[in-house]
Amino acid sequence: FSEPPVSYLSNSQTTQQFGPPKEISPNPLRFSTECYRDFFVDTALVPFMSRSVSLLEELAETDDAINLNRRGYCFFAGSDAGTKALERFGVQASSFGAGPLRRHDGSAGRGLAEYERSPANGFRGPTGLDLVYGPELIQEIYPFVTSKAQVMLHARRCGWLDAQALGRAMLTASGGQVLRGEVVGFDTHQGAVTAVQVQQNDGVAVSLKCDAFVNAAGAWMERVNKLLEAPPLPLKNEVHAKVILNDVQGVIPQTAPFMVWRDQVDLDWEEDMKEFLLELDDTATGGMVNSASWLAKQPGGQHLRPCGNGRVLLLWEHLHRHVPVPEDPEMPISDFLEMYPELCVRGLKEMVPGLGGYVEGLGKDTSVDGGYYTVMPDGRPLVSPHGASNAYVCGGMGTYGLMGSPAAGELLAMHLLQEPLPSYADACLWPRRSVPEEEVIDLLDESS
């Protein structure tokens, strides 16, 4: 879809204090996070995602047109509690199928002799997870990371890819055609969908006859679900926002991995700024600027990755979690926190002190880009027959939608063709036939 530019939440106080709003990406979602990983603490998600990553690797095998890399996910902690949390997660993730867990603490004078550095390019490299202890060893690998970091958990079969290239490759492989428009209704006969009514972007209405219908509408799945008069789904939409920082100071090497700070962080405001943030908070009157809460310690989970041409993606999901999303969400999103870029920088300088140089001087070319995460309560995928006898749903994958799309598409095709289903299929059905055996742990949010 071609959309107009996203606009910031308008607030005269913040404009006076911080200058004009930062530029918004003229093409919403142009900068997807585009990451993938194969570690989960869920007996169903591990084989599901392992299969999906294998499909990505098969697709990249010939010429790597999707620019798949395996730089890994690196989680850092500077506290004893954070160290224990990363150790516990590493052990659990390894036991759930993420591969062997290796420890590097410099004992016996071996230093990093047994630690394999991730390749900057390509998708072949180490698997499993590595725990690296002590600021000296961590800074030997990543000199720009804070000396406060006591431990680094490096998950290996992880990285990112070119999302648009992946879409083009899938369309090319399927021979599919793109019709731009909106689903406005269905024709049904004896409980089956026989045609889909579409209002095209050029105003022309068309009726598409079909043997089966798949609702993969993301944040608008429930809208389509209602049009089909199917039972409701327990989906929730969350705002997903990314800052695109033009790293003119060269703080983050473009060869760096995906990096996450696990511990809580104090944003360290000046006294006069604290007073201003208390006055700015408008949540008591139904607003979205919850600036009073920024004075307290913030949960960890802030993360970044380089995205080419000297740019860096910055994200901190919890900052928009309080923002209510309407039942029929808008796109492009008009309401991002105006201070989101500065908040991300303030949070991430705990992990990378060099980013502190941007706190008072974010360039006007800093931009914000965003869409939605659509999630199920149990964090599992939704790939299932639903509604009409030949209707299906595919989505609800939230933080792992792109990386899970190959396995989800394959599983959906197996349903359509009535082929034998893989072991994880039951966990993706609705209503659920199984529940996670362990509490879901997400290291992109603060874990205990």
Descriptive report:
The chain is an alpha+beta fold. It is 23% helix and 21% strand. The strands form four sheets. The protein has a ten-stranded mixed beta sheet, sandwiched between helices. It has a three-stranded antiparallel beta sheet with strand order 8-9-10, with no helix packed on it. The chain has a three-stranded mixed beta sheet with strand order 11-18-17, with helices on both faces. Strand 17 and strand 18 form a beta hairpin. Helix 2 packs across helix 9. The longest helix has 19 residues. It is globular, with a radius of gyration of 23 Å. The relative contact order is 0.19.
Structural class: alpha+beta
Quaternary structure type: single chain
Tell me roughly what share of residues is in helical segments: 10-25%
Number of strands: 18
Low-confidence stretches: 1-29
What's the mean pLDDT score? 89
How far the N terminus sits from the C terminus, by CA atoms, comes to: 40 Å
Portion in beta strands: 15-25%
- Count every helix, treating DSSP H or I runs of 4 or more residues as helices: 9
Name the overall outline. globular
Please write the string of helix (H) and strand (E) elements: HEEHEHEEHEEHEEEEHEEHEEHEEEH
Largest sheet: 10 strands, mixed
Widest beta sheet: strand line-up: 1-16-12-15-14-13-3-6-5-4
Region (Disordered): 1-26
Keywords: Oxidoreductase
Protein name: FAD-dependent oxidoreductase domain-containing protein 1
Biased composition (Polar residues): 8-18
